[in-house]
């Protein structure tokens, strides 16, 4: 059995990597990948704690829900990125400074 | 002996997750970073297996590698070449913005590490009372039963939400339109 603290340390590292990507990348797709890293770190924690709970199974169920929600989020986010590119001719988040017109 | 092998494989995949994640974030070339994202997701699925969540690992591989990454690659192919070339002007030098980002991430990492190390994770109250999953249990069977009983309402809400999100994405990404 791998101790649960090791799962949590790995997920903490992954979360901070994602946070770094969100804060500093100049490219909307890489920012999106950073958000995916953060979601995956949360899912890793859910799964690691779910190992100790067989009766109600909350950890694994909500890990599954979180994965599906992340997939839906990516679909919408990529559609928005394509639209932003059409309008601003750039997907740099610092250059898109208006929401309408 | 058996435990030793398990730990070696676990730490191999953990290192693979962390190194490839760092490469994805640091890489300037977008296509390379997306393909490295594959490696991170597959290694994460391997880590889920060590937490005895085989169904979640399979769902991760199918949804992320099969859905999300194909979607991201399509986003490339549908957009023109300028999308790729306009990203490439490399911001050379050490920007103050980057420094702040590194500082915030490292500080958060430090806080998380301190909390995790100081918590007595193996003797939590609910853990003593609950039944852990054995490696011989059929977790897919358990997940199926729980989806249809305890978590029926979240499951139904999720299905409606997924349909809304996909219709919305198709509407947003359509070509032309009034605006």
What do these coordinates show?
The complex is a heterodimer of chains A (101) and B (179). By secondary structure, chain A is mainly alpha-helical. Helix content of chain A is 74%, strand content 0%. Chain A has 3 helices and no strands. Chain A has helices spanning 4-24, 28-50, 58-88. In chain A, α1 (4-24) runs antiparallel to α2 (28-50) and α2 (28-50) runs antiparallel to α3 (58-88). The longest helix of chain A is centred in the C-terminal third of the chain and has 31 residues, at 58-88. The radius of gyration of chain A is 17 Å and the shape is elongated. Chain B has 2 domains: 1-88; 134-172. In chain B, α1 runs antiparallel to α2 (30-50) and α2 packs antiparallel against α3 (54-78). The chains are: A mainly alpha (101), B mainly alpha (179). At the A-B interface, α1, α2 and α3 of A face α1, α2, α3, α5 and α7 of B.
Question: Can you lay out the helices and strands and say which pair or pack?
Answer:
The complex is a heterodimer of chains A (101) and B (179).
Chain A (H helix, E strand, L loop, with lengths): L3 H21 L3 H23 L7 H31 L13
Chain B lengths: L1 H25 L3 H21 L3 H25 L2 H5 L10 H23 L6 H5 L9 H10 L3 H21 L7
Helix pairs in contact in B: 1-2, 2-3
| CATH topology label of chain A | Helix Hairpins
Tally of domains of chain B: 2
The Rg value of chain A, from CA coordinates, equals: 17 Å
Strand share of the residues of chain B? under 5%
Give the distance, in angstroms, between the N- and C-terminal Cα atoms of chain A. Answer: 57 Å
Oligomer: heterodimer
Biggest sheet overview of chain A: none
Major interchain interface with per-chain residue totals: A-B, 69 and 82 residues
Could you report the average pLDDT of chain A, rounded to the nearest whole number? 88
CATH architecture of chain A: Orthogonal Bundle
Largest beta sheet of chain B, briefly? Answer: none
* Portion in beta strands of chain A: under 5%
**How many β strands of chain B by DSSP?**
0
């Amino acid at each position: 059995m791998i101790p649960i603290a090791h799962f949590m340390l790995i997920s903490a590292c992954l979360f901070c990597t994602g946070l770094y990507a969100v804060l500093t990348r100049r490219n909307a797709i890489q920012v999106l990948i950073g958000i995916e890293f953060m979601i995956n770190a949360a899912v890793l924690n859910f799964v690691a704690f779910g190992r100790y709970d067989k009766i109600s199974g909350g950890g694994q169920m909500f890990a599954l829900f979180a994965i599906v929600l992340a997939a839906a989020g990516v679909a919408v986010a990529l559609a928005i990125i394509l639209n932003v590119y059409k309008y601003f001719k750039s997907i740099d988040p610092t250059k898109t400074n208006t929401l309408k017109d | 002996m058996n435990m030793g092998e398990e730990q070696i494989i676990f730490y191999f995949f953990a290192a693979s997750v962390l190194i490839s994640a760092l490469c994805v974030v640091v890489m300037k070339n977008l296509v390379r970073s997306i393909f490295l994202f594959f490696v991170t997701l597959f290694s994460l699925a391997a880590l889920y297996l060590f937490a005895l969540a085989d169904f979640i690992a399979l769902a991760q591989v199918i949804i992320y590698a099969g859905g999300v990454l194909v979607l991201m690659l399509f986003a490339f192919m549908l957009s023109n070449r300028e999308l790729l070339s306009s990203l490439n002007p490399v911001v050379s030098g050490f920007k103050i913005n980057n420094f702040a980002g590194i500082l915030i991430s490292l500080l958060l990492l430090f806080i998380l590490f301190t909390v995790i190390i100081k918590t007595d994770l193996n003797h939590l109250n609910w853990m003593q009372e609950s039944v852990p999953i054995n490696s011989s249990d059929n977790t897919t069977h358990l997940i199926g039963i729980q989806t249809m009983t305890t978590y029926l309402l979240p499951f139904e809400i999720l299905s409606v939400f997924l349909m809304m999100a996909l219709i919305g994405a198709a509407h947003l990404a359509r070509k032309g339109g009034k605006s």
